[in-house]
Amino acid sequence: LELSASIKAAWLRYYAADREAVLNRDALRLLQGLEEITLSRYRLGLLPQQAVLRAQREITAQRLSLVAVEQRRRTATAALNALLARTPGSPLAAPAEPAPLADLPPIDQLLTHTRDRNPLLAAEAAGVKAARFERDRTWRDRYPDFSIGLTNNRPRGGESSWDLMFEVMIPLQQSARRAREREATYMLTAADARRDAAEAKLHGELGSAHAAYTAGHDTLRLLRGTLLPQAEATRDASRSAFSAGSVDFDTVLEAERQLVDTRLALLQADLDTRLALTELEKIAGDLP
């Protein structure tokens, strides 16, 4: 589960870095288009030189951002290749779109599912069972024990005979026996405490991942359904108004920046939500 979750998380970061690079290249093309419009209007005397310089400065800043994004993409590629036991520079296919996100079952159902499927909890439960068995075995040493043996003797060339053995063990060393009983009881208590601590830790991690996934899912719904359409409409309206000369260049530039920021926020929210889902699957296994 750990390795599978690590590979999924590394692939998601590779996917996000690849999509971020695409968004930054799109933003660069938009700014270059604005620069051409600005130069044309500057030559006609409709815009001051500061507008042209502002557009060129924004293009340079966008190129610097693209360099940083490409570095993150190479880092994500190397991390994913390392988990797949490949050389860092091995080429990777362009990431496809991941499956749509689904609604999660209620948290109580996930908690029950985790108790039944998590390997760490299963190991701790086995430790409790072994400690309880050892305690019960130690307590049985309070009482006398006996054993019976029957042996058939057949010497070469002689007559066969039978030996009957009867052995009785009486616990006379009471202090040593009580010490073993206390030790076994403490071991059982410690095993119970480890199991309870592991269960509480996993439940806390599960609750945090569930809350992060739910919040991310709601954020994605708002970004896709409300904020992104609003940013696109604002960008289109500002461009039309700029062509008509009713708004200045800064207004258009701000609208373009808001659209790019909204798309990047949507990508980041999608990444965070899918990473939370990966964490849930690492804790609970295959989700019901």
Q: Please, could you describe this protein's structure?
A:
The chain is mainly alpha-helical. The chain has two domains: 1-98; 105-143 and 172-288, Outer membrane efflux proteins (OEP) (Up-down Bundle), CATH 1.20.1600.10. It has helices at residues 2-43, 49-83, 107-117, 119-140, 174-244, 249-284, and strands spanning 145-153, 161-169. Helix 1 packs antiparallel against helix 2 (49-83). The protein is elongated and about 125 Å long. The model has no long low-confidence stretch (mean pLDDT 86).
Low-confidence stretches: none
Number of structurally distinct domains: 2
Shape: elongated
Based on secondary structure, the structural category is: mainly alpha
The CATH level-2 architecture of the largest domain is identified as Up-down Bundle
CATH superfamily of the largest domain: Outer membrane efflux proteins (OEP)
The amount of helix comes to: over 70%
Q: What proportion strand?
A: 5-15%
Distance between the termini: 16 Å
Largest beta-sheet characterization:
2 strands, antiparallel
Q: State the CATH topology of the largest domain.
A: Outer membrane efflux proteins (OEP)
* Element-by-element helix/strand order: HHHHEEHH
Compute the CA-based radius of gyration. Answer: 35 Å
- Secondary structure tally: strands: 2
Under the CATH scheme, which class of the largest domain? Mainly Alpha
Strand order of the largest sheet: 1-2
Number of helices: 6
- Overall pLDDT level: 86
